[in-house]
Amino acid sequence: MARQLGDSHRRFLQTLMAVGITDEQEARALYQHCCDAHKMQCIPDKLDEFIEAINSRLQPMFMQIRKGMSEENGHQYYALVNMAETDITRMTSDYADNELELFRKTLDLIVSSENGKASSTDILNSTDTMTSKKLKKSETEHLLTRLVQDKWLCERRGEYTLSTRCVIEMEPYIRTMYQDQVKVCHICHNIAFQCQICENPSCGIKIHNPCVARYFKGRVEPRCPACDDFWPHEIPEVRGLRSQSR
């Protein structure tokens, strides 16, 4: 049975509908604000229960507020996702068929890469194999800019990665379409694109960069949590700064 929603729940949902995605710190601040505005008791450790009450009412509409981690900084994010459409067809109202085809090709490049990235050059070259109307170089560059602005991709120094929003929303599709290629983090068990891999051929587990930072923090000699071999990769620092990329 769906739980009763109050004005504080509705305000929270309306705000998230407007922004699409928010990090945990912002979500907690919004939770506090909504409770204060409608004179409801705010219990700091009950944010997930507050969101679950909203989700119980969203279920008949095939919507859900879903939680996921940023591969860049390890922060938790909340995103409002459409559960009725589990693939790229959810983007059809905003993008033309040939634009969606190029997004799929970009997704192919990112999933199949070792570092979870696709260069602008490789994306531009992939237009040569398009089956729909081929995009010109300027059109491709404009499309990539739009995909970043719409928070499907992130870009840094000419390399593109999937945004946190995209990973959260597209995870069922990615797991289904790339069963033999998708990587899963040994620590958090979520899909992993930007990760480190154990170099033991008989092991080969993958760990998100932020999960690596947290797991090996303070360990004198980092060893693989699965096979106990020495972990040869550079251990990143736990990042405390909030990222603007989502």
UniProtKB/TrEMBL annotation:
Assembly, per entry: Component of the Smc5-Smc6 complex.
Entry's Gene Ontology BP terms: double-strand break repair via homologous recombination
Record keywords, A-Z: Chromosome, DNA damage, DNA recombination, DNA repair, Metal-binding, Nucleus, Telomere, Transferase, Ubl conjugation pathway, Zinc, Zinc-finger
PANTHER family, per the entry: NON-SMC ELEMENT 1-RELATED, NON-STRUCTURAL MAINTENANCE OF CHROMOSOMES ELEMENT 1 HOMOLOG
Key word Translocase present: no
Subcellular compartments: Chromosome, Telomere; Nucleus
GO molecular function: ubiquitin protein ligase activity; zinc ion binding
Lineage start: Eukaryota, Metazoa, Chordata, Craniata, Vertebrata
The organism of origin for this protein: Gambusia affinis
InterPro entries the record matches: Nse1 (IPR011513), Nse1_RING_C4HC3-type (IPR014857), WH-like_DNA-bd_sf (IPR036388), Znf_RING/FYVE/PHD (IPR013083)
Catalyzed reaction equations: S-ubiquitinyl-[E2 ubiquitin-conjugating enzyme]-L-cysteine + [acceptor protein]-L-lysine = [E2 ubiquitin-conjugating enzyme]-L-cysteine + N(6)-ubiquitinyl-[acceptor protein]-L-lysine
Classification via CDD domains: RING-CH-C4HC3_NSE1 (cd16493)
Enzyme class: transferase
Gene Ontology, cellular component aspect: chromosome, telomeric region; nucleus; Smc5-Smc6 complex
Superkingdom to which the source organism belongs: Eukaryota
Keyword presence, Signal: no
Domain called Non-structural maintenance of chromosomes element 1 RING C4HC3-type: residue spans: 185-227
The EC number(s) this enzyme carries: 2.3.2.27
One Pfam family recorded for the sequence: zf-RING-like
Protein name (Swiss-Prot/TrEMBL): Non-structural maintenance of chromosomes element 1 homolog
Family: Belongs to the NSE1 family.
Protein purpose: RING-type zinc finger-containing E3 ubiquitin ligase that assembles with melanoma antigen protein (MAGE) to catalyze the direct transfer of ubiquitin from E2 ubiquitin-conjugating enzyme to a specific substrate. Involved in maintenance of genome integrity, DNA damage response and DNA repair.
